[in-house]
């Protein structure tokens, strides 16, 4: 008898049997699928799916997250394709839906993240593994919240791009990670999720205590750090591991450990 599951966009998908051939178009979700014990089921990934490292030689690369090779995907005969609302375009999802069911995640909070892990546990018959990762995540979060609770709130700006300068705004997983770290995002009041900003106006737009320069998707340099720092009163500029702030899934357990080290630097 077919089982029906609903993804985070509210789309229902029915399967006669547990999906066995998986294509993942989201790097952090590829990592999660691996951590749930689904390595053998993963048949296709993007060129940005860099964890686990050996996948780049053992799995078929089907393009990037914004540009995919539809024919390569079709030839892999997937049972399911895993996408994300932010990472993959609506047009890609619609085109892929002609091949097989496309499961779309939508993650901007820790609760969304835990729901995704639960969903994958049900969808791929990995409930025990999923619960293990949920428990590990919750344990790490409680430990970190105890660690951070007496640290003062600091105003922050998290840059993801230069030329033009762009930052993480509200309703993003990055913003959720900033809040977890007791950072008040000075750009959380913007309507756009990743707004362009005039960095020369940083003082009047919030004057951050800390500027975080992400390691991805843009390769920031010391020159960028110097340029941005000049337009605040006293901000400390720190290069951070973008994967720890923007990757969801099982990565959150490692991220929390990284955040402790980061807090000790500040």
Task: Give the helices and strands, then pairings.
Layout: E1 3-6, E2 12-15, E3 22-24, H1 27-35, E4 42-45, H2 55-58, E5 60-61, H3 70-75, E6 80-84, H4 90-96, E7 102-105, H5 110-123, H6 127-148, E8 154-161, E9 166-167, H7 173-180, E10 183-185, E11 210-214, H8 222-229, E12 236-240, H9 242-246, H10 251-265
Helix pairs in contact: 5-6, 6-10
What does this protein look like?
The protein is an alpha/beta fold and about 270 residues long. It folds into two domains: about 5-105, 3-Layer(aba) Sandwich (Rossmann fold); about 150-265, Rossmann fold, CATH 3.40.50.1980. It has ten helices and twelve strands. It has a five-stranded parallel beta sheet. Strands 8, 9, 10, 11 and 12 form a five-stranded mixed beta sheet that branches. A two-stranded antiparallel ribbon has the order 1-2. A hairpin with a 4-residue loop joins strand 8 (about 155-160) and strand 9 (about 165). Helix 5 (about 110-125) packs antiparallel against helix 6 (about 125-150). The chain starts with a strand and ends with a helix.
CATH topology of the largest domain: Rossmann fold
Give the second-level CATH assignment, the architecture of the largest domain.
3-Layer(aba) Sandwich
Q: How far from one another are the termini? A: 56 Å
Number of helices: 10
Tally of strands: 12
Oligomer: single chain
Q: Report the major sheet.
A: 5 strands, parallel
Nearest-angstrom radius of gyration?
A: 19 Å
Quick one: overall form?
A: globular
Mean pLDDT: 97
Which class best fits the helix and strand makeup? alpha/beta
Query: For this structure, what is the CATH homologous superfamily of the largest domain?
Result: Nitrogenase molybdenum iron protein domain
What share of the residues lie within helices? 25-40%
Poorly predicted ranges (pLDDT <50, ≥5 residues)?
none
* Widest sheet: strand ordering: 5-4-3-6-7
> CATH class of the largest domain, please?
Alpha Beta
């Amino acid at each position: 008898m077919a089982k029906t599951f609903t993804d985070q966009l509210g789309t229902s998908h029915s399967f006669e049997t547990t999906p066995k051939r998986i294509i993942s178009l989201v790097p952090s979700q590829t990592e999660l699928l691996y951590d749930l014990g689904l390595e053998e089921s993963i048949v296709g990934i993007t060129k940005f799916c860099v964890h686990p490292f050996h996948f780049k030689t053992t799995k078929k690369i089907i393009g990037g997250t914004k540009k995919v090779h539809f024919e390569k995907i079709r030839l892999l005969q997937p049972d399911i394709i895993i996408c994300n609302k932010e990472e993959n375009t609506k047009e890609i999802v619609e085109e892929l839906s002609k091949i097989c069911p496309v499961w779309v995640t939508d993650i901007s909070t820790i609760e969304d993240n835990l729901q995704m892990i639960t969903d994958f546990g049900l969808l791929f018959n990995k409930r025990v593994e999923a619960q293990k990762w949920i428990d590990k995540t919750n344990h790490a979060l409680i430990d970190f919240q105890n660690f951070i609770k007496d640290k003062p709130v600091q105003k922050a700006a998290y840059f993801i791009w230069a030329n033009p300068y762009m930052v993480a705004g509200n309703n993003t997983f990055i913003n959720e990670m900033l809040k977890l770290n007791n950072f008040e995002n000075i750009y959380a009041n913007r309507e756009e999720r990743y707004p362009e900003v005039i960095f020369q106006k940083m003082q009047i737009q919030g004057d951050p205590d800390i500027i975080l320069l992400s390691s991805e998707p843009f390769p920031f340099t010391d020159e960028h750090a110097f340029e941005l720092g000049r337009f605040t009163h006293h901000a400390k500029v720190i290069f951070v591991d973008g994967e720890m702030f923007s990757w969801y899934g099982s990565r959150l357990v490692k991220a929390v450990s990284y955040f402790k080290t980061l807090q000790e630097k500040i």
